[in-house]
Each structure stands twice: as C-alpha cells, then as structure tokens.
Specification:
It is built from 17 helices and no strands. By secondary structure, it is mostly helical. The chain folds into three domains: 84 residues, Tetratricopeptide repeat domain (Serine Threonine Protein Phosphatase 5, Tetratricopeptide repeat); 53 residues, no CATH class; 74 residues, Serine Threonine Protein Phosphatase 5, Tetratricopeptide repeat. The longest helix has 13 residues. The chain is elongated and about 75 Å long. It starts with a helix and ends with a helix. The relative contact order is 0.05.
Length: 298
C-alpha cells in the first residue's frame, strides 16, 4: 500500500517521508481523509525544519484541520517556512500582516513571493498598488501584477481585470475580454466573477444574451451570499427571466438582500409592498424601504 511506502522511513525520522505521509492522510489517497493523522506527521516533519510541512501545518492550524484552530500558531509556522523561502508561506505571512493593516510588512513578504512567481502574491501586491496600501498608488503596476496573476489562472486577478475591461474606467473598454476573464474566474468559484458573468449574459454584453445562463450564474453567486446576485435573482423571478415567474420568491429574495443593506433590493422591496407583489400591500412598509433606498424623506 502507498502508506507503507513512506511509513517505515517516517518512523525513522525522515522529514520528507513524514511530509508525504501527511499529504496522503490529508488528501485521502490511501482511503478517506484523516486530518488528525496528517496533522501528526506534518508536525513531526515541520519540527525537523521541512518547509512544505511547516506550511501545511500552518494551514491545519489556520483552518482547524486535525487540530483546534489557532491563528497564532498558523502564523508561527507560516513564518518559519517563509524564512526558508517557501513562496506560499511568504504569501500567507503577507496576508496576515495585510489583515492586521500592517501593509508595509505585508508588501515586504508579497514581494519576496512575487520574485518566485507566486500568483496569489502577484494579485495581493496588485491590490496594494491599486488601493495605495503601504505604498504609493500606481494603477499601471497594479495592472501588470493582475495580468501576471491572471495568466497563471488566479481567479481574483481575472475578475479584477475583467471589471476594469468591462467598465473602461482604468483599461480601454473591451467587453469581449471582460466576458472571457469573468468566465475563467467564475468557473473557479470567484463570486464577483460569477455575478459579473450573470450580468454579461443578462445584458448581452460580450456575449449573446441568454437569460437562462444569467439566472444560472446569479444563482451560483447568490449561494455564496453576494447581495447583488440575490437582488438580481429577485428581478429574474419577478419578470420570469430564465425561470418561471414567482412574485413571492422575488419578494423573499429582495427582502433577504434589503435587510443586509443592498439599496437596489430595498427599493424593489418597497415597490413590492406598494403594489402588493408577492406580499400583502402595506403602505408603511413601502415607505420604510423606499426611504432606506433613497436616504431621503418621501
């Protein structure tokens, strides 16, 4: 069996064998995933200084896989691996610093990983340049970094570039390129891209209009909690676009998004109450939600 191939050497203290044994248990290559055993072997290997195991041990602590979630210990092990030049760990250390708004330190680690071609760090460093976080804002550098990351398949960078091509605010407008980038990112599960792909199909921008596909991608984004997609699904149900008309379902979706602050949904919810669409007419509720959406007294 594949486990036996590494087990003997792992028991003798071979850090690389311990790492591979951890991977086998974590991925379920032997049978089913067993994260506790994976954690055990990653830890042994990590303590011996094996960088890949230090990174994986950090992932275990960060996600509570095979052990209790502990972000401090996760950072500790990411840092140890990062100091050995492990690019994924360098990116993770940068992300921890960025989350704590220590952007200058974050950039230091992102740059180390970028030199090794790490796509996630290219994207994250691009965000720093785009937003001017810890460094002077520079959209040209941001674009170059997003492009490098997108070419490696980074979904967030693909979605970002897609939005820039779609609006034409930063890059020359090209809805065909935007659609292609949205599609590539959406298939990887990027929620912004899924929403934007739905918009493309709904409006016919960059692709032939297809309300069924618009409904499909709005649904995928909505399932991830995207309020814009939830509201737009409501529109689809209200108008029978890509699905059967269902005013009650539309009302429920508007309400869900409206309660979380989506302005378009608040307006549509107010209209539902005003017209009695999917709910009994209620002038007070209509006024309440329309006021929220316009932020002025009616």
């Amino acid at each position: 069996m594949i486990v036996e191939k590494y087990l003997e050497e792992a028991k003798q203290g071979n850090a690389e064998a311990q790492f591979y044994l951890g991977v086998i248990y974590a991925t379920g290559e032997n049978d089913s995933a067993n994260f506790k055993k994976a954690f055990k072997w990653f830890k042994k290997s990590a303590k011996a200084g094996f960088a890949d195991s230090q990174y994986n041990l950090g992932v275990c602590y960060a996600n509570g896989k095979g052990t209790f979630k502990n972000l401090h210990k996760a950072f500790k092990w990411f840092k140890k691996a990062a100091e050995q030049g492990h690019s994924k760990s360098q990116c993770s250390v940068g992300a921890y610093y960025s989350k704590g708004k220590a952007y200058i330190k974050a950039i230091e680690w992102y740059e180390k990983a970028v030199k090794q071609g790490n796509a996630t760090s290219q994207c994250n460093l691009g965000i720093c340049y785009e937003k001017g976080r810890g460094i002077t804002k520079n959209l040209v550098k941001a674009t170059l970094l997003y492009t490098k990351a997108a070419e490696q398949g980074n979904a967030k960078a693909q979605a970002k570039l897609g939005s820039w091509y779609y609006t034409g605010d930063i890059l020359i407008k090209d809805v065909d390129k935007a659609f292609d980038l949205f599609k590539r990112a959406a298939k990887q599960g990027d929620v912004d891209a899924q929403y934007s792909l739905g918009v493309c199909y709904y409006t016919g921008n960059g692709v032939q209009q297809d309300l069924n596909k618009a409904f499909k991608w709005y649904t995928k984004a909505a399932e991830q909690g995207d309020l814009r997609a939830i509201c737009n699904l409501g529109v689809c149900y209200a108008n029978g676009q890509g699905t059967q008309k269902n005013l009650k379902r539309a009302f429920d979706l508007y309400k869900k998004a409206a309660q979380k602050g989506n302005i378009k949904a608040q307006r549509n919810l107010g209209i539902c109450y005003a017209n009695g669409d999917g709910i009994r007419q209620d002038a007070d509720e209509a006024s309440k939600w329309l006021k929220k959406s316009t932020k002025i007294k009616i």
